[in-house]
Amino acid sequence: MSENAFQFAWFQQSPAGFDPLPLAQSLWRADQMHGVAVSGLLARALEQAVTEAGRTELVPARYHVDLFRPARMITTTASARVVREGPRLVLLAAVVEQDGEVVARAGATFLAPSADAPGEVWSAPGERPVPPPAEVLPPPGEHHVPIFASAAGWSDNFADHQNTGRHQTWQTAIPIVAGEECTPFQAVASIADATSMVTNWGARGVEHINTDIDLALCRLPDSNRLGLRAADHLAADGIAVGTAEVFDSSGSLGTATVTSLANTRRTVDLSGGVEPRGAV
């Protein structure tokens, strides 16, 4: 096995860009990269552009990714630029390219935090999601296979969760680039792709492939450990929309939405378990 097989990250940086490591391989096809890795690389580029603009006081509030071409398991580049800058916000755009062709793009809004408004506003009733109990979690900082709950309780046995129950997941974000720490924004931006897993996973497996990721945040996660819980799933004529609530150990912090296409000819059937790559 190559040295890269032991690297616990999505990419290894090289003179030509970023070489995907084995963990970046999708479950859809062996030569395809999953959206978690692509989204993480876009978030890293956006965060670097904000730092280079000298606006580190701002926090990410909106993040949108278009996954319009399958990213392959080949050398990849990522870049970002500031589109507009104002006293309380910065708008940015980013792209991921392979062989000179754009395979994914992202837009982001970073906002200046301030004091909360004093007036009361309606919010959805009901219990907010919480992390799994401590007895099913590894120690903080230790990487692990994503943990799911559904009609079955929390576990990392994917076969248990091939059902029609309300899905949720708890994950520790994998570093985007080997040798670098995964920042809270990189963590939530990459794990947001797993919205497809909690909203599109049912009794026959994952039968939809997401074409985008929309993430809206009121604050940054408190660490690189966070979760998603399905809030809704709507489908008609082969097009599905899934929305999940994003939460960490401090509470809920936003929503993530994916638009997906039916992909029944390449259904990801998880009834027999899954190799622990960590993402579709």
- Within CATH, the superfamily carries the name Acyl-CoA thioesterase, double hotdog domain
- The overall strand count is 15
Mean pLDDT: 92
SSE run: EEHEEEEEEHHEEEEEEE
Describe this structure in words.
The longest helix has 18 residues, at 35-52. The protein has helices at 35-52, 184-191, 195-200; strands at 11-14, 17-20, 59-66, 77-85, 89-98, 101-111, 147-149, 168-172, 201-202, 205-206, 208-210, 212-217, 225-236, 239-248, 251-262. Strands 3, 4, 5, 6, 7, 8, 11, 12, 13, 14 and 15 form an eleven-stranded antiparallel beta sheet that branches. A two-stranded antiparallel ribbon has the order 1-2. The protein has a two-stranded antiparallel ribbon with strand order 9-10. It has a single domain (3-112, 139-266), classed as Porin (Beta Barrel). The model is unreliable at 1-5 and 275-280 (pLDDT under 50). It is built from three helices and 15 strands. The chain is globular and about 45 Å long. With 280 residues, the chain is mainly beta. Strand 13 and strand 14 (239-248) form a beta hairpin. Helices cover 11% and strands 36% of the residues.
Short characterization:
The chain has helices at residues 35-52, 184-191, 195-200; strands at residues 11-14, 17-20, 59-66, 77-85, 89-98, 101-111, 147-149, 168-172, 201-202, 205-206, 208-210, 212-217, 225-236, 239-248, 251-262. It has 280 residues and is mainly β. Strand 5 and strand 6 form a beta hairpin.
